[in-house]
Write a structure and sequence with these properties.
Maltoporin, Chain A, 22-stranded antiparallel β-barrel, 7 helices, globular, disordered N terminus
Length: about 800
């Protein structure tokens, strides 16, 4: 299969894929193939025994798919939980648990169970999937079900691959598009994108992509007040008989439409033909996301409104360099690909809601009223209030500084496609490091006599410096994941061109290290603030405390995949698959700590992998001379030792931990249809049905819902439909129109019993009209015509219930121009 032209097509994109419907000159339209590389080989999506949804370049354009939120919304069986740009976790086929808060994504975040790839580079990250803007993408491939044999860790529930356009040698190309949008009761948005493709010579081609996107806000930060209230948090917020509770008012931060965001990016690539057998590609991507405000609202404040007392701000900068060398050694096709990811996140988050749940809030918020503290604890008399306890400002915020660095290398070999026995085999090496500084600013602590907080002596540090006044607690943690793996798939034609068997396996060996400290400022001290006193801190050293050690956690195993497929004709394919998936275990930041609640034992210092067995039957069909295409699959999934995270500010003093807590089963069906109903009308549809159930609950520290309950963030039914109509041309003008509908059934917000709420079903409609002429295209689009406010994720991550929702009705004018030269 991998002749020279085919191999170049896979890597350098010489093959041009279409929206699925094309018309050769003077020929009737037919549904055209989309070439994908989901099996590490370039193949038609209809010819491989793998369930796949591929959105090609024109579909991305027509459906206005630009960001992570957009393609999640467009594809049934793909859902998410999250709270804004760069803060999302994806789920496929109902394999969902609620995501961990971004406040602790670096210090204590599970690895996602859906892998995200940009071309050949894995870019998955705990709680913060890389949100690359979909500029100049060739296609998006979504592979449901375990893909671990070829794509490794985190491809447990599926894999999402963003495939970029590569430099082409067949001529100069350039293009630009721009859009201006208005949102109901929100700020306007604008977008500009441009690309240029330049063949420098017969051996060298360059491509550049540039984009600047500004998205107006639609959620208000309303003026409001907050006061510590022992009735809300009777455990500890403040003593009921405190003589004074200070009120916080957010007048200076109040703002309409305060959740603005932007994407600024560039992608540069160069392809070089070394000789007749070898070529190389290098690509550099840089993107910065800036986001203010929050993307979920507080229903007690109002629709599309919240009340925040500490600034909410995000900057997420990504630098990604990738390289590919491919060629032929004797009869083998060889691909070496590698990448280096350097990502830096700086974020401010309002944490005032923590007053509603924290068991030690009074210690960080209220004065002391017992003179015995002077003798017993050495508290300076100036901080004693004998007349009664006073609770000072409740304002609290988190300041997160996180870096992610990732080196990956993969070398793989492929045998010729024309042989009856074929194989793909390779080795993969991954080195992933997260360094995080989570500083929690409690505005009252300087007035309570807390001195500046320093890391625990002897603990390894990311930042060894003493934190500024007001930082009552901080994490200073480094997480390292090192992995090597060997993988392969063997293909054998039992009956040539009819019956094929595929066997795949992957052996992995991982080392997971966790070092650093969590540090609590000490308000019980001797000395006077402002006179050079520094608190050496209390807390945990993750090389020695609570069952932790300086030795990494070692994990190794082998996973398998078997497929049998039958092709009775060129228009019909049946396949059955058994596949396994996994995601790594890890260290528990809160491990080894006795619970305050005697009903729960000590949390384990580590948690193990959770594992998946997937059984699947699928079919791919084409009818009526490629005018109708129908694909579908049925699946049964067993998910064991599920990793469940819990934020617990009352029972366990380190607050957040992860536990292998349950088993579940999922029974489902999914399908998609493309129908060229007439030469002018094309219809697209897709649906999914998931019946999920907890079959065994055995967690010792996480209070889950009962056995028999449904998994969270999983609508039982989802579907999408799109109709595109091309009007007869008039004087060279080609008018067109399209309408799109998306529906999601109701779902649950959480597996944790105390946080579980029903999320309502929703229906969203979009429509557009436009015209093409020569190289120009103009379009008027209305998204969310019915102005539906969808409940996408009900969460308690800031200890105040909020609802992540979609953008209100938005009207956009889009204009584009493409030029092709010789």
């Amino acid at each position: 299969m991998f002749e020279r032209s085919k191999l170049s097509s896979a890597i350098l994109s010489v093959i041009a894929t279409s929206a699925g419907v094309a018309q050769a000159q003077n020929q009737p339209k037919v549904i055209e193939e989309i070439v994908v590389t989901a099996t590490k080989r370039a193949s038609s999506a209809q010819d491989i025994p793998v369930t796949i949804r591929a959105l090609d370049e024109s579909t991305l354009r027509d459906a206005a798919i630009y960001s992570f939120d957009d393609y999640v919304a467009y594809l049934p069986n793909l859902t998410s939980g999250g709270r804004g740009p760069g803060q999302q976790t994806a789920y496929i086929r109902g394999m969902a648990v609620e995501p961990i808060t971004v406040l602790l994504s670096g210090a204590q975040g599970t690895t996602p169970n859906v892998a995200l790839y940009l071309d050949e580079q894995p870019v998955t990250a705990p709680g913060r999937n890389l949100d690359i803007y979909a500029a100049d993408l060739q296609r998006i491939e979504v592979l449901p079900g375990p893909q671990g044999t070829l794509f490794g860790a985190s491809s447990q529930a599926g894999t999402i691959r963003l495939i970029t356009n590569k430099p082409q040698f067949d001529g100069f190309q350039a293009g630009a598009n721009a859009a201006y949008s208005t949102t109901k009761n929100g700020d306007p948005s604008n977008r500009v994108e441009a690309f240029v493709n330049l063949p420098v010579s017969q051996k060298l081609a360059l491509r550049g992509v540039f984009y600047s996107v500004n998205l107006g806000g639609y959620i208000d930060n309303d003026i409001g007040s907050f006061t510590t209230d022992p009735a809300v948090n009777p455990l500890s917020t403040a003593t009921p008989d405190a003589v004074y509770y200070e009120e916080a008012i957010n007048t200076q931060l109040a703002e309409d439409d305060f959740n603005d965001s932007s994407y600024e990016g560039v992608r540069l690539s160069a392809a070089y033909l070394i000789n007749e057998d070898w070529d190389a590609l290098i690509q550099y991507t840089q993107q910065t996301i800036n986001a203010d405000g929050v993307f979920d609202y507080d229903p007690t404040v109002g629709d599309y409104a919240a009340t925040r007392f500490f600034k909410d701000q995000l900057k997420d900068k990504v630098d990604l360099t990738t390289w590919t060398l491919q060629g032929r050694l004797a009869m083998l096709d060889v691909v070496y690909t590698g990448g280096y990811l350097d990502r830096h996140i700086n974020q401010y988050v309002d944490y005032t809601g923590y007053n509603n749940s924290g068991a030690f809030i009074n210690y960080y918020t209220c004065t002391y009223d017992n003179p015995d503290y002077i003798v017993n604890y050495g508290i300076d008399p100036g901080f004693i209030t004998p007349a009664g306890r006073e609770c000072l400002t409740p304002v609290k915020g988190a300041i997160i500084d996180q870096s992610q660095k990732r080196w990956t290398n993969e070398l793989r070999f492929t045998t010729p496609e024309e042989h009856r026995l074929r194989a793909t085999a390779g080795v993969f090496i991954d080195d992933f490091e997260i360094e995080t500084q989570d500083d929690y600013n409690y505005a009252a602590v300087p007035d309570l006599g807390f001195v500046p907080n320093a890391p625990i002596p002897g603990a390894k540090t990311v930042n060894p410096n003493t934190r500024p006044a007001g930082i009552a607690f901080f994490n200073d943690i480094r997480r390292v994941e090192k992995q090597w793996a060997v993988f392969g798939q063997v293909y054998f034609d039992l009956i040539p061109d009819r019956l094929e068997i595929i066997a795949g396996a992957r052996y992995y060996d991982m080392e997971l290290d966790f070092e650093g400290s969590s540090n609590f400022a000490n308000g019980i001290f001797q000395g006077v603030p402002g006179e050079g006193v520094v608190d050496t801190g209390r807390g945990r050293d993750y090389d020695v405390d609570g069952g932790h050690s300086s030795d990494p956690l070692d994990l190794d195993d082998t996973i398998y995949k078997f497929t049998l497929n039958y092709t009775p004709s060129e228009d019909l394919l049946f396949f059955g698959t058994y596949s396994q998936g996994f995601r790594p275990g890890g260290w528990n930041r809160g491990g080894g700590i006795p619970s305050v609640n005697p009903s729960f034992p000590t949390v384990s210092a580590v948690y193990d992998t959770d594992d998946v067995d997937n059984y699947e039957l699928g079919l791919k069909t084409s009818w009526f001379d490629h005018l109708l295409q129908v694909n579908g699959s049925f699946y049964y999934i067993k998910w064991t030792d599920m990793q469940v995270s819990r934020f617990d500010p009352q029972n366990v003093s380190i607050l957040t931990f992860i536990e292998n807590a349950a088993d579940s089963e999922i029974k489902g069906v999914e399908g998609d249809v493309t129908w060229l109903a007439t030469q002018n009308l094309t219809l697209f549809g897709a649906f999914s049905y998931n019946d999920t159930e907890l079959t065994n609950v055995f967690g010792q520290a996480v209070e889950l819902v009962d056995e028999g309950s449904e998994l969270p963030l999983t609508p039982k039914w989802q579907f999408s439909a799109r109709a595109v109509y091309e009007f007869p041309q008039v004087d060279g003008y080609h008018p067109f129109a399209q309408v799109q509908l998306r529906y999601a059934d109701d779902s649950w917000s959480s597996l944790v019993a105390a946080d579980r709420q029903k999320q309502d079903s929703y229906t969203i409609m979009d429509a557009s009209v436009g015209v093409r002429k020569d190289n120009w295209r103009a379009e008027l689009m209305v998204q969310n015509i019915n102005d539906e406010s969808a409940e996408l994720f009900i969460n308690q991550q800031d200890d105040i219930q909020r609802i992540t929702t979609n953008r209100p009705r938005t009207v956009s004018l889009r204009v584009s121009y493409d030029f092709e030269g010789s």
